[in-house]
## 1
Amino acid sequence: MSSVPATAPVPAPVPAPVPVPAPAVVARDLAVRRGGRPVLHGVTFTVAAGAVTGLLGPSGGGKTTLLRAVVGVQADVTGSLTVLGLPAGSPALRARTGYVTQSPSVYGDLTVRRNLRYFADLLGAPPGRVDETLAAVDLQGEADRRTDALSGGQRARVSLAAALVGSPDLLVLDEPTVGLDPVLRRDLWALFHALADAGRTLLVSSHVMDEARRCDHLLLLRDGRLVADDTPAGLLARTGAADVEDAFLVLAEGGGAAGGTGGATGATGAVGASGRGRHRGPAGGSR
Protein backbone atom coordinates (compact mmCIF):
# COMPACT_ATOMS: atom_id res chain seq x y z
CA MET A 1 0.00 0.00 0.00
CA SER A 2 1.56 3.30 -1.08
CA SER A 3 1.78 6.13 1.42
CA VAL A 4 0.18 9.48 0.62
CA PRO A 5 2.54 12.41 1.30
CA ALA A 6 1.25 14.88 3.85
CA THR A 7 0.12 18.20 2.48
CA ALA A 8 2.24 21.06 3.80
CA PRO A 9 0.17 23.70 5.64
CA VAL A 10 -0.42 26.85 3.68
CA PRO A 11 1.02 29.82 5.56
CA ALA A 12 -1.42 32.55 6.42
CA PRO A 13 -1.01 35.66 4.33
CA VAL A 14 0.99 38.39 5.99
CA PRO A 15 -0.98 41.65 6.03
CA ALA A 16 0.66 44.52 4.25
CA PRO A 17 1.99 47.20 6.57
CA VAL A 18 -0.29 50.17 6.96
CA PRO A 19 1.52 53.20 5.54
CA VAL A 20 2.11 55.97 8.05
CA PRO A 21 1.32 59.35 6.51
CA ALA A 22 4.17 61.80 6.38
CA PRO A 23 3.89 64.78 8.75
CA ALA A 24 2.10 67.75 7.26
CA VAL A 25 4.63 70.20 8.74
CA VAL A 26 8.27 69.55 9.69
CA ALA A 27 10.30 72.30 11.38
CA ARG A 28 13.95 71.98 12.33
CA ASP A 29 15.78 74.70 14.25
CA LEU A 30 13.20 77.26 13.10
CA ALA A 31 14.21 80.78 14.13
CA VAL A 32 12.81 84.22 13.35
CA ARG A 33 14.17 87.68 14.10
CA ARG A 34 12.08 90.83 13.86
CA GLY A 35 13.52 94.29 14.30
CA GLY A 36 16.85 92.75 15.23
CA ARG A 37 15.28 90.83 18.12
CA PRO A 38 14.81 87.05 18.20
CA VAL A 39 11.14 85.99 18.27
CA LEU A 40 11.49 82.23 17.71
CA HIS A 41 14.54 80.47 19.14
CA GLY A 42 15.33 77.43 17.01
CA VAL A 43 12.15 75.41 17.58
CA THR A 44 11.85 71.87 16.23
CA PHE A 45 8.53 70.07 15.84
CA THR A 46 6.25 68.16 13.48
CA VAL A 47 2.52 68.46 12.82
CA ALA A 48 0.79 65.14 12.14
CA ALA A 49 -1.38 64.85 9.05
CA GLY A 50 -5.11 64.39 9.53
CA ALA A 51 -5.17 65.65 13.11
CA VAL A 52 -5.87 68.80 15.14
CA THR A 53 -2.67 70.19 16.62
CA GLY A 54 -3.00 73.01 19.13
CA LEU A 55 -0.38 75.73 19.41
CA LEU A 56 -0.90 77.19 22.87
CA GLY A 57 0.82 79.73 25.04
CA PRO A 58 0.55 83.22 26.49
CA SER A 59 -0.16 86.20 24.25
CA GLY A 60 3.05 87.61 22.83
CA GLY A 61 4.89 84.30 22.95
CA GLY A 62 5.50 83.92 19.20
CA LYS A 63 2.47 81.89 18.10
CA THR A 64 1.43 84.20 15.27
CA THR A 65 5.02 84.48 14.04
CA LEU A 66 5.29 80.69 13.92
CA LEU A 67 2.01 80.38 11.99
CA ARG A 68 3.11 83.08 9.55
CA ALA A 69 6.31 81.13 8.95
CA VAL A 70 4.31 77.97 8.21
CA VAL A 71 2.16 79.71 5.59
CA GLY A 72 5.20 81.40 4.08
CA VAL A 73 4.48 85.07 4.75
CA GLN A 74 7.04 85.68 7.52
CA ALA A 75 10.36 87.35 6.69
CA ASP A 76 13.77 86.58 8.24
CA VAL A 77 13.14 82.88 8.83
CA THR A 78 16.08 80.53 9.27
CA GLY A 79 16.25 76.79 9.79
CA SER A 80 14.31 74.16 7.85
CA LEU A 81 10.53 74.29 7.37
CA THR A 82 8.60 72.02 5.01
CA VAL A 83 4.84 72.05 4.53
CA LEU A 84 3.04 69.20 2.76
CA GLY A 85 6.42 68.05 1.49
CA LEU A 86 7.44 71.42 0.02
CA PRO A 87 9.44 74.36 1.36
CA ALA A 88 7.15 76.76 3.24
CA GLY A 89 5.93 79.55 0.97
CA SER A 90 6.17 77.53 -2.26
CA PRO A 91 3.66 78.77 -4.86
CA ALA A 92 2.18 75.26 -5.13
CA LEU A 93 1.05 75.50 -1.49
CA ARG A 94 -1.25 78.49 -2.02
CA ALA A 95 -4.22 76.40 -3.08
CA ARG A 96 -3.45 73.67 -0.54
CA THR A 97 -3.22 75.87 2.56
CA GLY A 98 -5.97 77.91 4.21
CA TYR A 99 -4.90 80.67 6.62
CA VAL A 100 -7.23 82.44 9.04
CA THR A 101 -5.70 85.49 10.70
CA GLN A 102 -6.72 86.88 14.09
CA SER A 103 -8.62 89.77 12.53
CA PRO A 104 -11.34 88.94 10.00
CA SER A 105 -9.69 89.14 6.58
CA VAL A 106 -12.55 89.48 4.14
CA TYR A 107 -14.11 92.32 2.16
CA GLY A 108 -16.60 94.29 4.24
CA ASP A 109 -18.39 95.85 1.26
CA LEU A 110 -19.24 92.46 -0.23
CA THR A 111 -21.93 90.07 0.92
CA VAL A 112 -20.89 86.84 2.56
CA ARG A 113 -21.76 84.88 -0.58
CA ARG A 114 -19.83 87.24 -2.86
CA ASN A 115 -16.78 86.98 -0.61
CA LEU A 116 -16.85 83.20 -0.84
CA ARG A 117 -17.56 83.26 -4.56
CA TYR A 118 -14.52 85.51 -5.05
CA PHE A 119 -12.18 83.18 -3.15
CA ALA A 120 -13.73 80.11 -4.77
CA ASP A 121 -13.02 81.58 -8.21
CA LEU A 122 -9.42 82.36 -7.22
CA LEU A 123 -8.90 78.76 -6.13
CA GLY A 124 -10.85 77.09 -8.92
CA ALA A 125 -13.43 75.58 -6.56
CA PRO A 126 -16.62 74.15 -8.11
CA PRO A 127 -19.79 76.33 -7.94
CA GLY A 128 -21.52 74.18 -5.34
CA ARG A 129 -18.64 74.57 -2.94
CA VAL A 130 -19.85 78.01 -1.78
CA ASP A 131 -23.17 76.66 -0.50
CA GLU A 132 -21.44 73.69 1.13
CA THR A 133 -19.09 76.02 2.97
CA LEU A 134 -21.89 78.35 4.09
CA ALA A 135 -23.62 75.33 5.62
CA ALA A 136 -20.42 74.11 7.29
CA VAL A 137 -19.97 77.38 9.20
CA ASP A 138 -23.72 77.95 9.73
CA LEU A 139 -23.96 81.16 7.71
CA GLN A 140 -26.73 80.27 5.26
CA GLY A 141 -29.05 82.83 6.86
CA GLU A 142 -26.47 85.60 6.47
CA ALA A 143 -25.29 84.73 2.96
CA ASP A 144 -26.74 87.83 1.30
CA ARG A 145 -25.83 90.36 3.99
CA ARG A 146 -22.85 92.68 3.66
CA THR A 147 -19.99 91.41 5.73
CA ASP A 148 -19.44 94.75 7.48
CA ALA A 149 -23.02 94.52 8.84
CA LEU A 150 -22.31 91.27 10.69
CA SER A 151 -21.28 90.74 14.29
CA GLY A 152 -17.65 90.08 15.16
CA GLY A 153 -18.28 86.38 15.61
CA GLN A 154 -20.06 86.16 12.27
CA ARG A 155 -17.21 87.97 10.49
CA ALA A 156 -14.78 85.49 12.06
CA ARG A 157 -16.83 82.67 10.57
CA VAL A 158 -16.75 84.35 7.16
CA SER A 159 -12.94 84.39 7.36
CA LEU A 160 -12.97 80.71 8.26
CA ALA A 161 -15.32 80.01 5.36
CA ALA A 162 -13.01 81.87 2.96
CA ALA A 163 -10.18 79.57 4.04
CA LEU A 164 -12.36 76.45 3.75
CA VAL A 165 -13.94 77.13 0.36
CA GLY A 166 -10.93 75.84 -1.57
CA SER A 167 -10.89 72.51 0.35
CA PRO A 168 -7.28 72.97 1.55
CA ASP A 169 -5.20 70.08 2.84
CA LEU A 170 -3.83 72.21 5.69
CA LEU A 171 -5.74 74.80 7.73
CA VAL A 172 -3.72 77.26 9.81
CA LEU A 173 -5.99 79.07 12.24
CA ASP A 174 -4.76 81.93 14.43
CA GLU A 175 -6.96 82.09 17.55
CA PRO A 176 -10.16 81.42 15.58
CA THR A 177 -12.42 81.13 18.65
CA VAL A 178 -11.41 84.30 20.52
CA GLY A 179 -14.46 86.37 21.44
CA LEU A 180 -16.97 83.72 20.39
CA ASP A 181 -19.75 82.49 22.65
CA PRO A 182 -19.42 78.99 24.21
CA VAL A 183 -21.98 77.39 21.88
CA LEU A 184 -20.25 78.67 18.75
CA ARG A 185 -16.85 77.66 20.11
CA ARG A 186 -18.15 74.15 20.71
CA ASP A 187 -19.61 73.96 17.22
CA LEU A 188 -16.39 75.20 15.58
CA TRP A 189 -14.30 72.62 17.43
CA ALA A 190 -16.73 69.94 16.28
CA LEU A 191 -16.21 71.22 12.72
CA PHE A 192 -12.41 71.16 13.16
CA HIS A 193 -12.51 67.51 14.19
CA ALA A 194 -14.90 66.62 11.37
CA LEU A 195 -12.41 68.15 8.94
CA ALA A 196 -9.55 66.17 10.52
CA ASP A 197 -11.61 62.97 10.30
CA ALA A 198 -11.99 63.70 6.58
CA GLY A 199 -8.20 63.87 6.21
CA ARG A 200 -7.51 67.58 6.67
CA THR A 201 -4.70 68.80 8.91
CA LEU A 202 -5.38 71.67 11.33
CA LEU A 203 -2.87 73.80 13.23
CA VAL A 204 -4.86 75.96 15.65
CA SER A 205 -3.39 78.59 17.97
CA SER A 206 -4.97 79.78 21.20
CA HIS A 207 -4.01 81.42 24.48
CA VAL A 208 -7.04 79.80 26.17
CA MET A 209 -5.61 76.75 27.90
CA ASP A 210 -8.94 74.97 28.37
CA GLU A 211 -9.08 74.52 24.59
CA ALA A 212 -6.09 72.18 24.85
CA ARG A 213 -8.29 69.24 25.74
CA ARG A 214 -10.00 69.57 22.36
CA CYS A 215 -6.72 68.96 20.47
CA ASP A 216 -5.16 65.67 19.38
CA HIS A 217 -1.65 67.02 20.00
CA LEU A 218 -0.20 70.08 21.69
CA LEU A 219 2.70 72.43 21.10
CA LEU A 220 3.20 74.76 24.07
CA LEU A 221 5.16 77.90 23.27
CA ARG A 222 6.55 80.44 25.69
CA ASP A 223 8.79 83.38 24.85
CA GLY A 224 9.55 81.88 21.45
CA ARG A 225 10.65 78.53 22.87
CA LEU A 226 8.86 75.22 22.76
CA VAL A 227 8.24 73.95 26.28
CA ALA A 228 6.12 70.91 25.39
CA ASP A 229 5.33 68.73 22.38
CA ASP A 230 2.93 65.98 23.46
CA THR A 231 -0.64 64.73 23.56
CA PRO A 232 -2.89 66.26 26.24
CA ALA A 233 -2.90 62.96 28.18
CA GLY A 234 0.86 62.58 27.83
CA LEU A 235 1.44 66.12 29.05
CA LEU A 236 -0.68 65.59 32.17
CA ALA A 237 0.97 62.25 32.90
CA ARG A 238 4.46 63.70 32.51
CA THR A 239 3.84 66.68 34.79
CA GLY A 240 1.35 65.16 37.23
CA ALA A 241 -0.84 68.24 36.73
CA ALA A 242 -4.64 68.26 36.87
CA ASP A 243 -5.07 70.31 33.68
CA VAL A 244 -3.02 71.73 30.82
CA GLU A 245 -2.76 75.20 32.38
CA ASP A 246 -1.15 73.72 35.50
CA ALA A 247 1.06 71.53 33.31
CA PHE A 248 2.22 74.59 31.39
CA LEU A 249 3.11 76.33 34.66
CA VAL A 250 5.01 73.27 35.87
CA LEU A 251 7.08 73.22 32.69
CA ALA A 252 7.53 76.98 32.42
CA GLU A 253 8.55 77.51 36.04
CA GLY A 254 10.54 74.29 36.31
CA GLY A 255 12.67 74.96 33.25
CA GLY A 256 11.67 71.71 31.54
CA ALA A 257 12.50 71.15 27.91
CA ALA A 258 9.98 70.17 25.29
CA GLY A 259 9.47 66.47 24.94
CA GLY A 260 6.93 63.71 24.65
CA THR A 261 5.78 61.90 21.56
CA GLY A 262 6.89 64.62 19.19
CA GLY A 263 10.49 64.60 20.39
CA ALA A 264 11.02 68.33 19.81
CA THR A 265 13.67 70.21 21.65
CA GLY A 266 13.63 73.54 23.39
CA ALA A 267 13.95 75.30 26.70
CA THR A 268 11.85 77.66 28.69
CA GLY A 269 12.46 81.31 29.21
CA ALA A 270 10.77 84.33 30.71
CA VAL A 271 7.60 85.42 28.99
CA GLY A 272 8.35 88.26 26.62
CA ALA A 273 6.30 90.24 24.13
CA SER A 274 7.09 88.75 20.78
CA GLY A 275 5.97 90.97 17.93
CA ARG A 276 2.81 90.06 16.06
CA GLY A 277 3.12 89.99 12.28
CA ARG A 278 0.71 91.90 10.10
CA HIS A 279 -1.42 89.68 7.93
CA ARG A 280 -1.08 89.79 4.19
CA GLY A 281 -4.02 90.99 2.19
CA PRO A 282 -7.74 90.57 2.83
CA ALA A 283 -7.92 86.91 1.91
CA GLY A 284 -8.93 84.24 4.38
CA GLY A 285 -6.23 81.88 3.05
CA SER A 286 -2.58 82.28 2.26
CA ARG A 287 -2.34 84.07 -1.06
## 2
Amino acid sequence: MEQTQEIVNAPSNEQKPVRALILPGGGGRGAYQVGVIKALFERGLEFDMAFGTSIGGINATLLAQGQIKRLEELWCSIKSSDIFSLPSAPQIGRLILGHKLGLLDTNPLEALLRRELDLNKLKKSNMKIGWCTTDLCSLETRFITIDDIFSTNELLDVLMATSAIPMAFPPRHIHGSGLWVDGGLVRNTPMEMAVNLGADEVYMVLLHPQQINVCPVNMFEVLVRCLDIVLDASARKEVHSIELYNRLIAGGSEESRGRKNVKVRVFQPRKPVNTTLLEIDPERSRKLIMQGYNEGCELLDLYDKTEHLQV
Protein backbone atom coordinates (compact mmCIF):
# COMPACT_ATOMS: atom_id res chain seq x y z
CA MET A 1 0.00 0.00 0.00
CA GLU A 2 1.34 3.43 -0.89
CA GLN A 3 2.38 5.04 2.36
CA THR A 4 2.92 8.59 1.15
CA GLN A 5 -0.74 9.08 0.35
CA GLU A 6 -2.98 10.46 3.03
CA ILE A 7 -6.44 11.84 3.31
CA VAL A 8 -5.81 15.51 4.01
CA ASN A 9 -8.27 17.04 6.36
CA ALA A 10 -8.56 18.37 9.87
CA PRO A 11 -11.18 18.87 12.56
CA SER A 12 -13.23 21.99 11.97
CA ASN A 13 -12.72 23.35 15.48
CA GLU A 14 -9.73 24.07 17.71
CA GLN A 15 -10.41 21.23 20.09
CA LYS A 16 -7.97 18.35 20.46
CA PRO A 17 -8.65 15.86 17.65
CA VAL A 18 -10.08 12.47 18.53
CA ARG A 19 -7.40 9.96 17.53
CA ALA A 20 -7.76 6.25 16.85
CA LEU A 21 -4.95 3.72 16.60
CA ILE A 22 -5.71 0.71 14.37
CA LEU A 23 -3.51 -2.36 14.84
CA PRO A 24 -4.25 -5.18 12.37
CA GLY A 25 -2.97 -8.74 12.62
CA GLY A 26 0.22 -10.29 11.30
CA GLY A 27 1.47 -12.84 13.83
CA GLY A 28 5.20 -12.70 14.58
CA ARG A 29 5.51 -9.42 12.70
CA GLY A 30 3.57 -7.70 15.50
CA ALA A 31 6.79 -6.37 17.04
CA TYR A 32 6.91 -3.84 14.18
CA GLN A 33 3.83 -2.14 15.65
CA VAL A 34 5.65 -1.63 18.95
CA GLY A 35 8.37 0.37 17.20
CA VAL A 36 5.87 2.57 15.34
CA ILE A 37 3.91 3.14 18.56
CA LYS A 38 7.12 4.29 20.27
CA ALA A 39 7.67 6.79 17.44
CA LEU A 40 4.09 8.05 17.74
CA PHE A 41 4.32 8.47 21.51
CA GLU A 42 7.68 10.19 21.17
CA ARG A 43 5.94 12.87 19.06
CA GLY A 44 3.47 13.44 21.87
CA LEU A 45 0.52 11.82 20.09
CA GLU A 46 -2.21 10.55 22.41
CA PHE A 47 -4.94 8.15 21.38
CA ASP A 48 -8.56 7.98 22.47
CA MET A 49 -9.18 4.58 20.86
CA ALA A 50 -7.08 1.50 20.12
CA PHE A 51 -8.76 -1.16 17.98
CA GLY A 52 -7.01 -4.35 16.96
CA THR A 53 -7.32 -7.74 15.35
CA SER A 54 -5.27 -10.85 16.16
CA ILE A 55 -1.79 -9.91 17.43
CA GLY A 56 -2.74 -6.28 16.89
CA GLY A 57 -5.57 -6.78 19.39
CA ILE A 58 -3.13 -8.11 21.98
CA ASN A 59 -0.73 -5.22 21.38
CA ALA A 60 -3.62 -2.75 21.69
CA THR A 61 -4.72 -4.34 24.97
CA LEU A 62 -1.35 -3.96 26.71
CA LEU A 63 -1.05 -0.46 25.26
CA ALA A 64 -4.46 0.51 26.70
CA GLN A 65 -3.30 -0.83 30.06
CA GLY A 66 -0.54 1.79 29.90
CA GLN A 67 2.17 -0.82 29.51
CA ILE A 68 4.12 0.14 26.38
CA LYS A 69 7.40 -0.64 28.17
CA ARG A 70 6.10 -4.04 29.28
CA LEU A 71 4.87 -4.70 25.73
CA GLU A 72 8.38 -4.12 24.39
CA GLU A 73 9.89 -6.29 27.13
CA LEU A 74 7.60 -9.16 26.21
CA TRP A 75 8.41 -8.98 22.51
CA CYS A 76 12.12 -8.91 23.31
CA SER A 77 11.90 -12.05 25.44
CA ILE A 78 9.19 -14.40 24.13
CA LYS A 79 9.69 -17.20 21.62
CA SER A 80 7.24 -19.20 19.55
CA SER A 81 7.20 -21.85 22.28
CA ASP A 82 5.82 -19.21 24.68
CA ILE A 83 2.80 -18.82 22.38
CA PHE A 84 2.02 -22.32 21.14
CA SER A 85 3.30 -25.88 21.22
CA LEU A 86 2.92 -28.93 19.05
CA PRO A 87 -0.05 -31.09 20.02
CA SER A 88 0.40 -33.94 22.48
CA ALA A 89 -0.44 -37.53 21.53
CA PRO A 90 -3.98 -37.29 23.02
CA GLN A 91 -4.52 -33.97 21.21
CA ILE A 92 -3.40 -35.53 17.93
CA GLY A 93 -5.95 -38.27 18.51
CA ARG A 94 -8.70 -35.69 19.07
CA LEU A 95 -7.54 -33.87 15.94
CA ILE A 96 -7.78 -37.01 13.84
CA LEU A 97 -11.24 -37.78 15.23
CA GLY A 98 -12.38 -34.25 14.44
CA HIS A 99 -12.79 -33.25 18.09
CA LYS A 100 -10.02 -30.62 17.95
CA LEU A 101 -10.28 -27.71 15.51
CA GLY A 102 -6.73 -26.35 15.62
CA LEU A 103 -3.40 -27.92 14.76
CA LEU A 104 -1.45 -26.23 17.56
CA ASP A 105 -1.84 -26.05 21.33
CA THR A 106 -2.31 -22.43 22.46
CA ASN A 107 -2.27 -23.07 26.21
CA PRO A 108 1.08 -21.18 26.48
CA LEU A 109 -0.51 -18.04 24.98
CA GLU A 110 -3.50 -18.32 27.30
CA ALA A 111 -1.22 -18.61 30.33
CA LEU A 112 0.82 -15.60 29.22
CA LEU A 113 -2.27 -13.47 28.70
CA ARG A 114 -3.73 -14.48 32.04
CA ARG A 115 -0.54 -13.25 33.73
CA GLU A 116 -0.47 -9.94 31.86
CA LEU A 117 -4.12 -8.88 31.64
CA ASP A 118 -5.53 -6.31 34.04
CA LEU A 119 -9.26 -5.76 33.47
CA ASN A 120 -9.38 -2.96 36.04
CA LYS A 121 -6.73 -0.96 34.17
CA LEU A 122 -8.56 -1.45 30.89
CA LYS A 123 -11.85 -0.29 32.37
CA LYS A 124 -10.19 2.85 33.77
CA SER A 125 -8.07 3.55 30.69
CA ASN A 126 -8.54 6.79 28.77
CA MET A 127 -8.13 4.70 25.63
CA LYS A 128 -11.24 2.87 24.43
CA ILE A 129 -10.20 -0.63 23.37
CA GLY A 130 -11.90 -2.95 20.88
CA TRP A 131 -11.30 -6.22 19.01
CA CYS A 132 -12.61 -7.88 15.87
CA THR A 133 -13.49 -11.60 15.65
CA THR A 134 -15.49 -13.88 13.34
CA ASP A 135 -17.79 -16.79 14.21
CA LEU A 136 -17.30 -19.92 12.07
CA CYS A 137 -20.84 -21.05 12.89
CA SER A 138 -22.87 -18.01 11.84
CA LEU A 139 -20.20 -16.26 9.70
CA GLU A 140 -20.86 -13.15 11.81
CA THR A 141 -17.97 -10.74 12.27
CA ARG A 142 -18.36 -8.90 15.55
CA PHE A 143 -16.61 -5.84 16.96
CA ILE A 144 -16.32 -6.18 20.74
CA THR A 145 -15.28 -3.32 23.03
CA ILE A 146 -14.18 -3.22 26.64
CA ASP A 147 -17.72 -2.06 27.50
CA ASP A 148 -18.93 -5.55 26.55
CA ILE A 149 -16.46 -7.28 28.90
CA PHE A 150 -17.31 -7.95 32.55
CA SER A 151 -14.71 -10.48 33.70
CA THR A 152 -11.12 -11.46 33.05
CA ASN A 153 -12.31 -14.79 31.65
CA GLU A 154 -14.49 -12.99 29.10
CA LEU A 155 -11.55 -10.76 28.14
CA LEU A 156 -9.35 -13.83 27.78
CA ASP A 157 -11.93 -15.52 25.54
CA VAL A 158 -12.09 -12.50 23.24
CA LEU A 159 -8.32 -12.18 22.94
CA MET A 160 -7.87 -15.90 22.31
CA ALA A 161 -10.64 -15.72 19.69
CA THR A 162 -9.30 -12.70 17.82
CA SER A 163 -5.83 -14.29 17.70
CA ALA A 164 -7.06 -17.74 16.60
CA ILE A 165 -5.53 -18.13 13.14
CA PRO A 166 -7.93 -20.50 11.36
CA MET A 167 -6.75 -24.13 11.26
CA ALA A 168 -3.53 -23.32 13.14
CA PHE A 169 -5.10 -22.18 16.44
CA PRO A 170 -8.33 -23.59 17.89
CA PRO A 171 -11.44 -21.37 17.82
CA ARG A 172 -12.95 -20.06 21.05
CA HIS A 173 -16.42 -19.86 22.53
CA ILE A 174 -17.58 -16.37 23.48
CA HIS A 175 -20.29 -16.25 26.14
CA GLY A 176 -20.46 -20.02 25.83
CA SER A 177 -21.40 -20.19 22.16
CA GLY A 178 -20.01 -20.03 18.64
CA LEU A 179 -16.58 -20.88 17.28
CA TRP A 180 -14.85 -17.52 17.13
CA VAL A 181 -11.58 -16.96 15.27
CA ASP A 182 -9.30 -14.23 13.98
CA GLY A 183 -11.50 -11.52 12.44
CA GLY A 184 -8.70 -10.38 10.13
CA LEU A 185 -9.92 -12.44 7.19
CA VAL A 186 -13.01 -10.22 7.05
CA ARG A 187 -12.03 -6.97 8.75
CA ASN A 188 -8.34 -6.80 9.55
CA THR A 189 -8.42 -3.01 9.88
CA PRO A 190 -11.54 -1.88 11.80
CA MET A 191 -11.27 1.75 10.69
CA GLU A 192 -14.95 2.20 10.01
CA MET A 193 -15.80 1.59 13.66
CA ALA A 194 -13.33 4.28 14.70
CA VAL A 195 -14.95 6.77 12.32
CA ASN A 196 -18.43 5.84 13.57
CA LEU A 197 -17.25 6.52 17.12
CA GLY A 198 -16.09 10.02 16.19
CA ALA A 199 -12.42 9.71 15.22
CA ASP A 200 -10.92 12.79 13.54
CA GLU A 201 -7.59 11.09 12.88
CA VAL A 202 -6.81 7.43 12.25
CA TYR A 203 -3.30 5.98 12.54
CA MET A 204 -3.04 2.46 11.12
CA VAL A 205 0.00 0.20 11.46
CA LEU A 206 -0.04 -2.62 8.92
CA LEU A 207 2.24 -5.65 9.25
CA HIS A 208 2.48 -7.07 5.74
CA PRO A 209 5.37 -5.54 3.73
CA GLN A 210 4.67 -2.75 1.29
CA GLN A 211 6.49 -4.65 -1.46
CA ILE A 212 7.21 -8.37 -1.82
CA ASN A 213 9.40 -9.64 -4.65
CA VAL A 214 10.26 -13.12 -3.37
CA CYS A 215 8.44 -16.24 -4.53
CA PRO A 216 7.17 -18.68 -1.87
CA VAL A 217 9.14 -21.93 -1.84
CA ASN A 218 6.89 -24.23 0.19
CA MET A 219 3.23 -24.77 1.04
CA PHE A 220 3.47 -22.85 4.31
CA GLU A 221 4.88 -19.80 2.55
CA VAL A 222 2.12 -20.08 -0.05
CA LEU A 223 -0.44 -20.04 2.78
CA VAL A 224 1.19 -17.01 4.39
CA ARG A 225 1.35 -15.19 1.04
CA CYS A 226 -2.35 -15.86 0.46
CA LEU A 227 -3.09 -14.42 3.89
CA ASP A 228 -0.98 -11.35 3.03
CA ILE A 229 -3.14 -10.85 -0.07
CA VAL A 230 -6.32 -11.03 2.02
CA LEU A 231 -4.98 -8.62 4.64
CA ASP A 232 -3.79 -6.16 2.01
CA ALA A 233 -7.16 -6.26 0.27
CA SER A 234 -8.93 -5.64 3.59
CA ALA A 235 -6.73 -2.63 4.35
CA ARG A 236 -7.17 -1.15 0.87
CA LYS A 237 -10.94 -1.55 1.14
CA GLU A 238 -11.05 0.28 4.48
CA VAL A 239 -8.90 3.17 3.26
CA HIS A 240 -10.95 3.42 0.05
CA SER A 241 -14.12 3.62 2.14
CA ILE A 242 -12.72 6.54 4.15
CA GLU A 243 -11.58 8.28 0.96
CA LEU A 244 -15.11 7.94 -0.43
CA TYR A 245 -16.52 9.18 2.86
CA ASN A 246 -14.33 12.30 2.69
CA ARG A 247 -15.25 12.93 -0.95
CA LEU A 248 -18.94 12.85 -0.04
CA ILE A 249 -18.31 15.42 2.66
CA ALA A 250 -16.28 17.63 0.32
CA GLY A 251 -19.10 17.42 -2.24
CA GLY A 252 -21.67 18.53 0.32
CA SER A 253 -23.90 15.50 -0.18
CA GLU A 254 -27.08 15.18 1.83
CA GLU A 255 -25.83 11.94 3.42
CA SER A 256 -22.72 13.67 4.78
CA ARG A 257 -24.50 16.56 6.49
CA GLY A 258 -23.21 17.03 10.03
CA ARG A 259 -20.20 14.78 9.47
CA LYS A 260 -16.52 15.73 9.37
CA ASN A 261 -13.45 14.76 7.38
CA VAL A 262 -11.12 12.09 8.73
CA LYS A 263 -7.33 12.18 8.40
CA VAL A 264 -5.69 8.80 7.83
CA ARG A 265 -2.01 7.99 8.27
CA VAL A 266 -0.83 4.53 7.24
CA PHE A 267 2.39 2.91 8.46
CA GLN A 268 3.69 -0.26 6.84
CA PRO A 269 7.04 -2.09 6.56
CA ARG A 270 8.90 -0.64 3.59
CA LYS A 271 11.20 -3.62 3.20
CA PRO A 272 10.59 -7.36 3.49
CA VAL A 273 10.05 -8.63 7.02
CA ASN A 274 12.19 -11.67 7.77
CA THR A 275 9.61 -13.57 9.79
CA THR A 276 6.31 -15.35 9.25
CA LEU A 277 3.05 -15.49 11.16
CA LEU A 278 4.20 -18.21 13.57
CA GLU A 279 7.89 -17.34 13.89
CA ILE A 280 8.62 -15.39 17.06
CA ASP A 281 12.20 -14.87 18.16
CA PRO A 282 13.61 -12.19 20.53
CA GLU A 283 16.40 -11.15 18.18
CA ARG A 284 14.06 -10.82 15.21
CA SER A 285 11.55 -8.95 17.35
CA ARG A 286 14.18 -6.45 18.46
CA LYS A 287 15.08 -5.81 14.82
CA LEU A 288 11.41 -5.38 13.92
CA ILE A 289 10.88 -2.92 16.77
CA MET A 290 13.86 -0.89 15.56
CA GLN A 291 12.61 -1.05 11.96
CA GLY A 292 9.16 0.10 13.05
CA TYR A 293 10.60 2.95 15.09
CA ASN A 294 12.93 4.19 12.34
CA GLU A 295 10.34 3.91 9.56
CA GLY A 296 7.70 5.43 11.83
CA CYS A 297 9.88 8.47 12.52
CA GLU A 298 10.69 8.88 8.82
CA LEU A 299 7.06 8.64 7.77
CA LEU A 300 5.91 11.07 10.47
CA ASP A 301 8.46 13.58 9.18
CA LEU A 302 7.15 13.05 5.65
CA TYR A 303 3.52 13.44 6.71
CA ASP A 304 4.35 16.63 8.68
CA LYS A 305 6.23 18.08 5.70
CA THR A 306 3.39 17.25 3.31
CA GLU A 307 0.83 18.74 5.67
CA HIS A 308 2.90 21.91 6.10
CA LEU A 309 3.12 22.39 2.32
CA GLN A 310 -0.64 22.07 1.99
CA VAL A 311 -1.43 24.71 4.61
